[in-house]
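Quick question, first post here. What does this chain look like in 3D?
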Amino acid sequence: MLKRIKRHQVLVGMFVTDIEDPLRDEAMRVRSFLLKDEAAVAKVKSSNIISLVIDTNRGVDVGSSAASHAPKAAASSASAARAFSEAEIKHAMQTIELTKPLLENLFSDIRLSGAASFEHADNAVDQIAKSMEGNPAALIGITRLKSKDEYTFLHSISVSALMVHFGRWLRLDKKTVRELGIAGLLHDIGKMMMPDSLLSKEGALSAAEMAVIRTHPVRGYETLARQGDMPEIVLDVCLHHHERMDGKGYPNGLSDKQLSLPVRIAAICDVYDAMTTARPYKRAWTAAETMTMMLKSEGHFDRYLLGQFMASMRNPMKLPPAVDRRQADQLNA
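> Answer (accepted):
Ran it through. Tokens below.
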């Protein structure tokens, strides 16, 4: 039976099937492993890992029933639904239903021909941007409730919605906000070209296989760059959304001033969505838990923007009384 535990609860003999690590690329599947000795346990406890999923049928348990975690997941879903009115939920679901076929066509085009239709992405962002004019928290909240099969396209919708919301919070111009929305929608398009056999492989990935997985930003960028009408912001975000402020990201190891404002925005929105998403085997992390983790991830995010993002999520219906215009001017230049 699967059970999610905190990092400090790990014991020798536990069989780990998944981890939640803020520094891990979501495209990289976690390989199951056994904690064989105290050295392995110590390594986990001193890492960036926030939680682990263990299989109690294949290893040591912490002594409590895995079923005790199920109500938390259900409560999380129920709580998300109760936070919005029936009209807001209906509107959010309509947006998702209208956007889904556009994304399915876009992803299908990528898989079959290696070409991305800008028209599909543009129309999808239209739907997302209109929904975000009402209660932005509703669409973002509903996309938290992803199933395994829906994860790819709902993650794209959610990151797009977050980037539209954050761009508006920063009082960026309409054109830029729209391009941020398209960038969020297409940031992970390179995953469509990763071999299914590699992503679903059982056992540890070799160094060569991990290198292939980490090509997805470049693969996505090359695909989008072939479209003559793709905005520069979209290309930049697709290529660099896994870069870090401290230069420890990929594919180019860029850092600090080398990273544009759209890329810094995308890095925050991408990780926030991944961490606050409910999965079949775990509850979604709350916004507070996620923000705490992100604040502790030294060197990963732009600290000024992270602070602004936190403020925007606490007050999604408001704009800040003032923002640092130098940041906005960098993007609008």
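The beta strands are 2-6, 15-20, 33-34, 51-55.
The two ends are 54 Å apart (CA to CA).
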